[in-house]
Q: What sequence folds into this?
């Protein structure tokens, strides 16, 4: 896949460069045969294809983009995170709150089997009650919190994949529109709107701030993509369309427009990375503060009396 | 996806002056070929021919505009520009652009302002009307010269007005 993308993009770049070389030469020749009023129209190096290539640097501008990571490489990562989520799932009712469409397998039967066994149900007394309320009841919430943690990591990986996927699409679109602008052999100005897909593409998956939720008596983390949260605000253009207009009817104009669109794309790739980073960092801070309540269980009181220390 | 160049190459127009057997074709972006139905050319006076060919030019221009804009849109270029994108100086200059073209023998000449207001001039010859074949060849040549002049001036305007 990577090879195909890189090849396709460089092929497009070459096509643009060849068009520019051809146009530059045609303009120079026209100037030679034509009116003196258009002097300065085509500089002399326009007749030299090597110099034209060097001056406009089109394939050079595209080359770094052809090295964009392959989004498909994220598949094993998300697959294994999904698998880990499945291994921790103890309740069939529980889905991934970050991405409810996730299918991560059947709930594990062991926990339900433990809860419903006769020895546990028939066990009575303070120790038994402690075991049930302080351990069994919390066990489910704790594993669910772990699943949510993995889901957050998975969302980050998916957001990163979306960045590369959309960057590939966007840079290809820039190339196609530039070629069209150059080939615009009519009287109209070449103008084009570039709708950048990067930030819109990650808005829903990167903005997953964790907050203490209300479920399970405040013990479970709830992951929500709350509007107005830090992470959403960190993503510019997350809401609405992120588009810029470019115009350039002349040779110079079209290539200048192409390069500023590329600069715009680069800026968005960087903002995308920052947004993912901020989202993860914010979640990490929350987790560190809430670690005790989210993942740890109070030790059950096994017996009353000062002599008895659990664990001995 | 086809490139804009390929789409423009494929534009092929056939138009007809309403109510008359005068036809015009546009292909390869700039090639214009006119033709007359049987017994049409010889019955038309020069001044009538001039008027009808100007109509033909307008029809071809309109058809080109329609297909050209469709091709632009299909390749992601904007056709109706928002005010902040539109270069009004360029649009103004383009509207006032005068282009001319004549056949090498001087029989037919064409001029237009901003690709509108076409006027076609046919040189009156004391020896009578030119044979149809000669006239058609001259008219096609004049059309090609006109388009070349118009486009060269357009390119110059685009350069002058930047972008």
A:
């Amino acid at each position: 896949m990577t090879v195909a993308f890189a090849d396709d993009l460089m092929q497009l770049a070459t096509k643009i460069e060849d068009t520019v070389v051809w146009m530059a030469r045609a303009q120079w020749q026209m100037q030679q045969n034509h009116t003196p009023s258009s002097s300065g129209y085509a500089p002399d190096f326009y007749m030299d294809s090597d110099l034209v290539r060097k001056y406009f640097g089109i394939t050079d501008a595209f080359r770094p983009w052809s090295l964009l990571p392959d989004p498909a490489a994220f598949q094993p990562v998300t697959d294994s995170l999904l698998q880990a989520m499945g291994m921790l799932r103890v309740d069939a009712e529980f889905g991934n709150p970050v991405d409810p469409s996730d299918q991560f397998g059947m709930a594990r039967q062991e926990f339900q089997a433990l809860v419903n066994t006769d020895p546990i149900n028939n066990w009575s007394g303070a120790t038994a009650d402690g075991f049930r309320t302080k351990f069994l009841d919390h066990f489910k919430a704790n594993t669910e919190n772990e699943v949510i943690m993995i889901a957050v990591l998975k969302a980050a990986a998916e957001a990163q994949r979306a960045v590369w996927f959309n960057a590939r699409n966007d840079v290809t679109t820039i190339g196609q529109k530039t070629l069209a602008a150059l080939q615009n052999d009519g009287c109209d100005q070449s103008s084009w709107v570039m709708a950048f897909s990067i930030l819109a593409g990650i808005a829903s998956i990167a903005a997953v701030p964790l907050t203490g939720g209300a479920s399970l008596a405040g013990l479970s983390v709830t992951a929500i993509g709350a509007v107005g949260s830090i992470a959403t605000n960190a993503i510019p253009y997350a809401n609405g369309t992120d588009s810029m207009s470019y115009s350039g009817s002349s040779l110079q104009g079209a290539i200048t427009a192409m390069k500023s669109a590329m600069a715009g794309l680069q800026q968005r790739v960087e903002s995308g990375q920052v947004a993912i980073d901020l989202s993860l960092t914010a979640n990490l801070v929350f987790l560190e503060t809430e670690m005790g309540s989210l993942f740890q269980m109070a030790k059950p009181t096994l017996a009353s009396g000062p002599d008895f220390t659990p664990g001995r | 996806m086809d490139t804009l160049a390929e789409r423009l190459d494929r534009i092929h127009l056939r138009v007809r002056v309403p109510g008359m057997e005068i036809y015009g074709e546009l292909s390869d972006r700039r090639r214009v070929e006119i033709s007359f139905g049987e017994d049409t050319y010889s019955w038309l006076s020069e001044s009538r021919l001039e008027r009808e060919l100007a109509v033909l030019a307008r029809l071809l221009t309109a058809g080109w505009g329609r297909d050209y804009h469709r091709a632009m849109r299909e390749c992601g270029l904007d056709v109706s520009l928002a005010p902040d994108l539109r270069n009004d100086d360029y649009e103004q200059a383009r509207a006032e652009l005068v282009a001319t073209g004549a056949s090498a023998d001087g029989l037919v000449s064409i001029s237009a302002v901003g690709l509108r207001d076409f006027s076609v001039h046919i040189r009156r010859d004391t020896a009578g009307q030119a044979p149809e074949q000669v006239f058609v060849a001259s008219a096609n040549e004049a059309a090609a010269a006109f388009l070349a002049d118009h486009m060269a001036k357009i390119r110059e305007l685009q350069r002058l007005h930047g972008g």
In short: Chain B has four helices and six strands.
